[in-house]
Each structure stands twice: as structure tokens, then as C-alpha cells.
């Protein structure tokens, strides 16, 4: 053990510090601390770490690290020279000038674009609108003068040399007014006739062209379903649940069947006639056979 290792170890022992205590204080592993005391620097990672670890060791045991390193300069391996980094100065003047030029060009383009936009708007509102208004004003008299009244009466001018006799006039021929063709209206639905009735099914007949059906929820809510029979095939028109006061209307030109979940919760009207569905809480089916007028 050389003088450097002895001095560091002696200072540690005077501080009554074990290698574990020194490891806790310097955060340097115990085997590195032992290598420093024995000056076995090959164990350490490199010369830079040798000087750094000796400096931390000296500080932990109360010695001046610079004095220790200077005193035993020959024993401690020298630190490798730091590589010189040559700084390259990039000319910024040119880039700054280029940036200024680009910003100036961008500003100029924006100003020119704004001016052109304003000019286009002014041209549209002033020139185009005035041109359209003037052309409309000029063409209007032409329409008035060019259009001749087909019912106008031509008055012949007197022959030259004739005396001051009466002027002959032509009597206009009255134009017959065409009579309006009446628009056919759909045949309204006729009154309903109850054919038979049971607890779950009522059969009605109606003579006419259509069935105007209204289903209204009279209770808290009411489930319903309406079917039609085009070409004698059953087709569901709609089903759902109505809340109190809600109404669904249907206009059908075929036989119809109405089904409600509870008879006492529904109000059904067909062609303006309210049907008597009863006051039971059971489901109710109503079939209305649409018959053609005789």
C-alpha cells in the first residue's frame, strides 16, 4: 500500500467509518474503495473515474481533494485530454436575409390578393348589377310594344279624297269562354253497418271508396295494430303504443282490420262514426269490409 492509499485509509479509520459507511456516503462500490486504498487502479473503469473516486473519497473523510491529488500527482493516473470540439459558425446573415425576403414577398402577395378581391366585389355589385338592371329596363318596353292584343279591333282609315262621311267600324267577335272541367273527388266513405259481434271480434261493412280510421288512446296507454287487405292479401300498415291523448290516423281503400290490446283503453272512429268497442280490458279485433257502391 502506497502513501496515498495509507493516508486515505488512515483518515477513514480516524472518522471511524467502515467501507460500507463510506460506500453509503460516496455511492461508490466497496470493491472500488478497496482498490483505491490498495492503489489497484486497474479495477476501476478508467483514469477519469480514478480521479473522481479519489476526490469523493477524500471529501468523505475530511481531506482536501485538490491537495491530495496534487500531492500524489505521480501516483494518480492523469486524466485523458478532452477532445477539442471545433465550433463551426454558420453564417446566419444569408438565412436572415432570405427569411426577410420571403416575409416581404408574402406580405406583398397578401396585399395584392386583398386589393384584387375588393376590386372583384366592387365590379360585381356596380357593373354587373347595373348592367342587369339596365338591360331589364330596356327590354321591358319592347315586350310591351311587340305584343299585340289578339282581341284588338282594327279601324280602317278613310280613303283619300272621300268626304267627311261616317267612319266604318268593325264589331269584335266575342271569344267563347271555355268551361272548367270539374275535378273528380274521391268517393267518401259511407256509414258502417254492424254485421255480428262477439267479445273479441266485431264485423262491420262499409259502402264507399275509402275508410278514414282514427285510433286514440283513451287510457294511460294503448297498443294497436292496423292491417289492410290489398288484393285479398293481409298487409300490416302500422303498430305501436299510444300514450294518453295521442292519435294515429289512416286512410285506406281496402278492407281493414283494427286490433287493440285493451278495449277500454282505445277510442276508434271510422268515417266519422265512433265504434262501440266495449269497456272490457281484453283485446279487441274490429274488421271492416269495404264494399263498392251499387
Task: Provide structural commentary.
This protein is α+β, with helices and mostly antiparallel strands. Among the domains are: 3-71, 434 Repressor (Amino-terminal Domain), CATH 1.10.260; 189-291, Immunoglobulin-like (Sandwich). 35% of the residues lie in helices and 23% in strands. It has helices at residues 3-14, 19-26, 30-37, 47-60, 65-71, 92-146; strands spanning 189-197, 201-208, 211-217, 221-228, 235-243, 247-252, 256-260, 266-270, 273-274, 284-291. A 6-stranded mixed beta sheet has the order 1-2-10-7-4-5, with no helix packed on it. Strands 6-3-8-9 form a 4-stranded antiparallel beta sheet, with no helix packed on it. A hairpin with a 3-residue loop joins strand 1 and strand 2 (201-208). Helix 4 (47-60) crosses helix 5 (65-71). The radius of gyration is 57 Å and the shape is elongated. The termini are far apart. 15% of the residues are buried. Residues 82-88, 137-148 and 152-168 have low confidence and may be disordered.
Amino acid at each position: 500500500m502506497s502513501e496515498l492509499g495509507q493516508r486515505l485509509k488512515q483518515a477513514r479509520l480516524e472518522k471511524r467509518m467502515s467501507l460500507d459507511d463510506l460506500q453509503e456516503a460516496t455511492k461508490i462500490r466497496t470493491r472500488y474503495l478497496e482498490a483505491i486504498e490498495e492503489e489497484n487502479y486497474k479495477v476501476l473503469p478508467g483514469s477519469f473515474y480514478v480521479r473522481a473516486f479519489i476526490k469523493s473519497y477524500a471529501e468523505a473523510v475530511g481531506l482536501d481533494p485538490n491537495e491530495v491529488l496534487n500531492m500524489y500527482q505521480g501516483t494518480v493516473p492523469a486524466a485523458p485530454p478532452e477532445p477539442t470540439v471545433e465550433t463551426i459558425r454558420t453564417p446566419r446573415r444569408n438565412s436572415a436575409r432570405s427569411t426577410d425576403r420571403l416575409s416581404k414577398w408574402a406580405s406583398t402577395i397578401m396585399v395584392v390578393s386583398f386589393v384584387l378581391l375588393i376590386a372583384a366585389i366592387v365590379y360585381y355589385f356596380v357593373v354587373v348589377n347595373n348592367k342587369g338592371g339596365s338591360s331589364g329596363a330596356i327590354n321591358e318596353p319592347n315586350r310591351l310594344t311587340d305584343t299585340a292584343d289578339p282581341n284588338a279591333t282594327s279601324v280602317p282609315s278613310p280613303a283619300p279624297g272621300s268626304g267627311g262621311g261616317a267612319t266604318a267600324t268593325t264589331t269584335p267577335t266575342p271569344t267563347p269562354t271555355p268551361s272548367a272541367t270539374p275535378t273528380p273527388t274521391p268517393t267518401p266513405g259511407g256509414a258502417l253497418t254492424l254485421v255480428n259481434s262477439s267479445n273479441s271480434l266485431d264485423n262491420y261493412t262499409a259502402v264507399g271508396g275509402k275508410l278514414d280510421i282514427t285510433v286514440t288512446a283513451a287510457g294511460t296507454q294503448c297498443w294497436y295494430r292496423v292491417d289492410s287487405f290489398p288484393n285479398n292479401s293481409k298487409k300490416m300498415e302500422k303498430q305501436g303504443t299510444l300514450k294518453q291523448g295521442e292519435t294515429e290516423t289512416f286512410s285506406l281503400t281496402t278492407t281493414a282490420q283494427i286490433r287493440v290490446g285493451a278495449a277500454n283503453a282505445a277510442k276508434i272512429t271510422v268515417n266519422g262514426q265512433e265504434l262501440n268497442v266495449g269497456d272490457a280490458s281484453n283485446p279487441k279485433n274490429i274488421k271492416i269490409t269495404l264494399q263498392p257502391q251499387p
